[in-house]
């Protein structure tokens, strides 16, 4: 273990400075330095085969420091009388509502292929086989159904798409009572 002792002697001052610089208490830095040494000793003869012992020691020191900081992170208790705020639904949830309304507006064939291929993750090939369609016919049917759904979303929910085809804005009209 001569290589371990040599690596510790050569890097001890820099490791100590590294830890002290990042911690407010010198005693904690010393404790973490001892932890680094214990981890190195635990490697046994394998430590001597490490190609860059200095880098290894600093990596272990950094990991020990991170572990310590995670364990000793300052937290504060929330008061008991804090009011529970009702969260507004996320925009994507509101878009889901709009999607389901517009999906219902499609004819049964369009709705069926979108539900199976897009919502239930069935492959187009499996869908074609179940419906006794050619693969190209199923692909064309899915493309046309998606286009009709897109048109319906634009018309009824004012969905707008950016240049990459991603939804950038929409409006969910109120439900009819």
General description of the model:
With 177 residues, the protein is an all-alpha fold. It is built from seven helices and two strands. The protein has helices spanning 2-22, 26-43, 53-71, 91-105, 108-119, 124-130, 135-157; strands at 160-161, 167-169. Strand 1 (160-161) and strand 2 form a beta hairpin. Helix 1 packs antiparallel against helix 2, helix 2 crosses helix 3 and helix 5 (108-119) crosses helix 7 (135-157). The longest helix has 23 residues, at 135-157. The model has no long low-confidence stretch (mean pLDDT 87).
Supply the key terms.
elongated; 2 strands; 177 residues; 65% helix; mainly alpha
Rg is: 31 Å
| Count of extended strands | 2
| Oligomeric nature of the chains | single chain
Q: How far do the termini sit from each other?
A: 81 Å
Helix content: 55-70%
Binned strand content: under 5%
The largest beta-sheet arranges its strands as 1-2
H/E element sequence = HHHHHHHEE
- What's the average pLDDT? 87
Largest sheet: 2 strands, antiparallel
In terms of per-residue confidence, which ranges show pLDDT below 50 for 5 or more consecutive residues?
A: none
How many helices does DSSP assign? 7
Query: What overall form do the CA principal axes indicate?
Result: elongated
Structural class: mainly alpha
């Amino acid at each position: 273990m001569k290589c371990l002792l040599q690596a510790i002697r050569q890097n001890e001052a820099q490791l100590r400075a590294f830890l002290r610089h990042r911690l407010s208490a010198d005693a904690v830095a010393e404790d973490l330095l001892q932890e680094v040494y214990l981890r190195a000793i635990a490697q046994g003869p394998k430590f001597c085969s490490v190609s860059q012992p200095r880098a290894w020691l600093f990596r272990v020191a950094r990991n020990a420091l991170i572990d310590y900081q995670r364990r000793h992170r300052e937290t504060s208790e929330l008061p008991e009388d804090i009011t529970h705020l009702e969260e507004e639904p996320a925009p994507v949830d509101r878009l889901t509502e709009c999607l389901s309304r517009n999906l219902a507006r499609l004819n049964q064939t369009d709705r069926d292929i979108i539900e199976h291929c897009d919502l239930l993750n069935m492959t187009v090939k499996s869908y074609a086989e179940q419906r006794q369609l050619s693969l190209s016919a199923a692909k064309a049917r899915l493309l046309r159904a998606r286009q009709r759904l897109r048109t319906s979303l634009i018309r009824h929910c004012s969905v707008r798409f950016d240049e990459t085809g991603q939804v950038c804005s929409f409006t969910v009209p109120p439900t009819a009572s």
